[in-house]
Design brief:
The protein has helices at residues 13-24, 31-38, 42-48, 51-68, 73-79. By secondary structure, the protein is an all-alpha fold. The chain has a domain at 30-79. The termini are far apart. The model is unreliable at 73-80 (pLDDT under 50).
């Protein structure tokens, strides 16, 4: 079972997702946390590069997830 919450920042997607996964006894995965780990800090990435650069990298990771179900920036670079 895969349930995906999509919406604006800070509206409770993670909070509801964690609670629901516990209730349904399924694995919880937080995409934002994964992206932050891959980029070694979202705020730092934006400060060093730009918001646009962050969005581009985030989209690359999203594409990997939708295709393979997992991803890292290293595999994105190798696939180009």
């Amino acid at each position: 079972m895969i349930i995906i919450f999509i919406g604006p920042r800070s509206i409770g997607k993670s909070t509801i997702g964690k609670a629901l996964s516990k209730k349904l006894k399924v694995k919880y995965f937080d995409f934002d946390t994964y992206v932050e780990k891959e980029l070694k800090g979202i705020d730092e990435h934006i400060e060093k590069k730009s918001v646009e650069s962050y969005r581009v990298e985030e989209e690359k990771i999203e594409v990997c997830f939708s295709y393979w179900g997992h991803c890292s920036l290293r595999s994105v670079a190798k696939s180009r």
